[in-house]
Every structure is written in structure tokens, then in C-alpha cells.
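Re: the 434-residue chain
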Amino acid sequence: MITKSQSAAEPPSCMPPDGASCWLCLEEGPDDSGAPLVRDCSCRGHSGFAHLQCLVQYAKSKTKDFAERGELTLSTMFVEKLFERCPNCKQEFQGDLYYDMTKAQLSFVEKEFKGANGWYLGTLRRRIHALDGKKEADRVEGEEICAKMLTLIDNMKKNGDPQLDAFMLASVYHDIGKFNYDIGTNQCLETAKHYLEISRDFFVTLGGRDSDIAVAIEGNIANVEARLSGNNLPTKKESDLSVQRARYNCMMRQNDVRTTQVGVHLATALFEAYHTIEALRLLEKLACASRRVHGSDHRGTADTAFLLKRFQARYVSIGDGLNYQALRYENDGKSCVIQGPVPRNIFEPRNFDDEKTLSVPTAVIYFSLGSPVMLHGLKKAAHLNGEIGDVREFCQSTDRCVVHLEGKDLKPVKVKPENLRIVFDVPDPKKESS
């Protein structure tokens, strides 16, 4: 999921229009305490708005109904998602609303149903997913939740609780490891490594599709080790990308918010591994699907569009140690218009007042890794002219870019920079083939 520091502005769908009312109490405007109407799901128009306390009371009532029927189990919780999913559009709440609802759920379950171990464990997991370990209050709460989960699973083990299977144990240990990784101190990174290794071993034992999860966790462990040693984070391996592709492909027909989130994670991993063209096409697909299913104002749609815009920018350097955004070619490709300098981190805010627009000779441009490029002007391999691909490496010994081409059965090629042109708009493969 895109972090708050990276996400787009608050989507308009969260703001109630004139005349909107709570679908539960039917009252317009704020409640008696002054709390406004809220909505952060896939409902559109005037529908779906409610007061937070009305939503909480509705979820509490439904939970008690399940308890009276003896159905307060871990599996029921993950299916029904009474505190986490809008009863109208059936999509999970997002942002602050998800944060507030998971907080209310944990308070309610600890007061009313703490003895329902499976339900309680699931509630603790949901809550830690909503926390930001870099915030002091969330860090303190998250550490308490980690301790509670460890105590709870020990008790469930002693009592032989059938709800605590190997998959749930692996998932809990992964949650603890992931939370400590997000905090990022050396002590927390050591803790993260410990629990991620336990989680990985459980998933390896489970085998099957779960062994793919173990491969992904192995990548998490490598990231922890890199941060502890002060080294750069390791680049994504093809095996890691294959696991994430498989996970997305398993979910892609569900058309829910989580599918979009998994797709965004995959697109980000692809971009970081310099598979920019594949990342862009995936994001365009996700943005289109999210607009159709959830609406243009939905948070998932806004965040996907935000990331797509960042990934569509093309960055170069010109030998002065600074980064620039390439805008277009001029003079039949002999010169390139660039703007900058720009921050190295694409998510850092830019000060456009300090940037300048320059036209420089194409020959002085250095491509950023991941740049989508088109081959041109080749003589010995003229059949490759017009092929597009990503710059994945730069070979210092031969002064050539290593380009991984899109065409099937085409192997990576080493090409002189003068035989490459930046692709500013990645073509749609369906339109090209028609």
C-alpha cells in the first residue's frame, strides 16, 4: 500500500455533499458530539455516508448476533469483516476510517469477547495492520499488541485450540516481523529478522502455494540484513517478482480494494527492479479498473493515479551529478528538453520555482536505470530498430546500456546510448498488434 507520505491528496469521496445523511440514523450533518459524516469505501454519490459511532454501534450489534448464534470464530471474522468493510458496497474501509474502526473493534472485543481467542487474535492482527510504526503513539500501541499476540498464541497452544493452525502462526509471526521492520531501529530490525525467519520456516513447511510466500519473506529478511549492515537494499530478484505476479494473478478477478493494493505492490516492485514498462502497463490497468469499480474519487483510484504519474516521468543526468526530468526531443532527436534539477527520490516534493528548462544535445544524456527506450539507427542488427525495452544495466567496460526488450524470444542487448531514444508514452500492445 502507498504510504501516507506518498499518497495523493484526500479523495473528494470522503467529503459529504450538501444534503448527505447517515444511512444508519438518517440524520444530516455532524452527530451530537460534532463528529462529521464519514465515508472511505467504494460508495458513490450521496450513499454510504455515516457517523463513525453509528458504524461502530452497527458493527457491535452484528458481532453480538454472531456470538448469540455461537459463530464467533476466527474464520467468521475474516469472512464477515464487520468492523472493516462497508455493509453497502462490500469494500474495505480505507485511511482514517479503517484506522478508527479497527481501534473501536479492539476496544469492544477486549471488553466483551476477550475469551473468544480466535476472534481476539484476528482483531489484534487487523489493528496492527492499521498502525504506522514510525509514529510514536502507534509504535507504543503496536508493541503492546505484539506482546498480546505472543501471549495469546502461547495460551492457545497450551489449550490445543484448533483455530491456531500453522498458517495462522506463520501469519502472526510475519505481522510482528513486518511491524518491527517498519519501526526501523536496529533493535527492532533484529526482532523483525527473528520473527520473519520463524514465519518463513512455517510457510516452507506448509509447502504448495505457501512456499511462494516463504520466498517473498526471504526477500524481506534480505532487506532487514541490508539495513542492519548499512548496505543498500538488494534489488528485486526475478524469483521475488514471480511470486508477487502469482499472488496478483490469484486475486485479479476479485475487483476489490485489496486486489488493487496487491497490484500496486507488484507495480512498485517491478519499478524498483527496473521493469518500468511492465509496471506502467499494470498501473494503467489498475487505475482503469479502480475507476470503473470504485469510482474516480475513491482513495485506491487516486493513489494508483498518483503512482502512475510518478512512474511516467523520465529522468536523466547530464554529467553534472544532478538529476533532470526529460520532457521531449527536438531537432529530429538531436537535442532533448530537460527540466530540473529534481530530487533523486521521485516522491520528494519538487520546487518548480528553482527548476530551469534546458535544451541539451542528446549525446550528453545519461539514461536512468529503468528508462523505457526504443532502439534506432542500428545497422548490423537493423531488425531490432523500433523495438522497445527497459535499461536494466550500464556496462562500463563497453560504454553500452543493457536493454531488456519487450519482444518475445528477444534476448537482452548491449546498445550504445546514441542508438537509444527515450519512450515518453509507452504504447498499448493491443493497439500495436491490431
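The radius of gyration is 25 Å.
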